[in-house]
Amino acid sequence: MTRRNRLLYTMIFVFCLPILTSQFDVEEEAILDKVENEEEPDVPNVDESESLLSNVVSDVNKTLTNLYNHVTSANITAENRTSTANETRKLVKCKEILYEGTEEIEVEIINGTHLAKLLQVKPDITSRDTEADCVLVLFHARACPFSAHAAPHFNALARSYPNIKMVALDALKYHGINAQYGIVGVPTLKMFHNGRPVGKFNGTEYNIQSFSKFVHAITGQYPLELLVTSKDFQGPVSSVVEKETDYFLVLSWLFIIVCSIYYFMQSKWWKMIVEMVQNNWRESEAQHEHND
């Protein structure tokens, strides 16, 4: 190699070395940046997290607001339907009862025959808004404590509504009419218009206020007064629980006992008991003969 060629190679090496070195540094920095980006993933900043949380809270609030509006509108619709039904319901029109000057307004105690006469239907009256006799009947029992509790309030109710005839009937004594008028328990309060049932008291509080609301809802009449006096506890409907023998209940229990005994005698348990007694009897007789 000549000196001229050596000089040429030396100059080429001197000029190319910085270029190669800088290119290596650039590639190395790019690789390092890529590795750091892979090791440290993108993490949302605080502002983005707060924005996401506020969006979630806003969506929840909107959902709850829509739900509240839906429930409120449903309640308003139900109330409107109830009020509309009450407005369109026809009230019964009761015929005025004429009393003599000294005649006292009070509950009348009747029997089954008298009740059938009071509740006779007049065929020419076919509508609730036609004047007819209104009769409020209390089906009670003297041995029932609930009937005794309701008695003074019902006695006082007769003075509050003088145009409604109020009667009381012992449903236990005259039990034959219970099925006819749909009586399944006592006390039961039913309103009749022209001999037809128009309402049944379904409340749980047997007081004069509840009875008055029941009568007003059917007839539209307002009470003259709502006052229970000490005299109302004395009658006509007794407020004292009277203990008496229910012969039909006694017969029912006797029937149940006789049927139970009969079916037990037809079972295998009865046969086992009879055979056990017979075997013990034979063994005892045999042992007695052996001892003799």
* Number of DSSP helical runs: 8
- What spatial form do the alpha-carbon principal axes imply? flat
Structural class: alpha/beta
Parts with pLDDT < 50 across at least 5 consecutive residues: 14-32, 38-44, 82-88
Query: What share of the residues lie within helices?
Result: 55-70%
| Gyration radius from CA atoms, angstroms | 48 Å
Average pLDDT taken over every residue:
79
C-alpha termini separation:
156 Å
SSE pattern: HHEHEHEHEEHHH
Number of strands: 5
Note the topology.
Elements: H1 3-39, H2 46-88, E1 108-110, H3 112-118, E2 134-140, H4 145-160, E3 165-170, H5 178-181, E4 188-193, E5 196-200, H6 208-219, H7 247-265, H8 268-291
Please outline what is shown here:
With about 290 residues, the chain is an alpha/beta fold. It has helices at about 5-40, 45-90, 110-120, 145-160, 180, 210-220, 245-265, 270-290; strands at about 110, 135-140, 165-170, 190-195, 195-200.
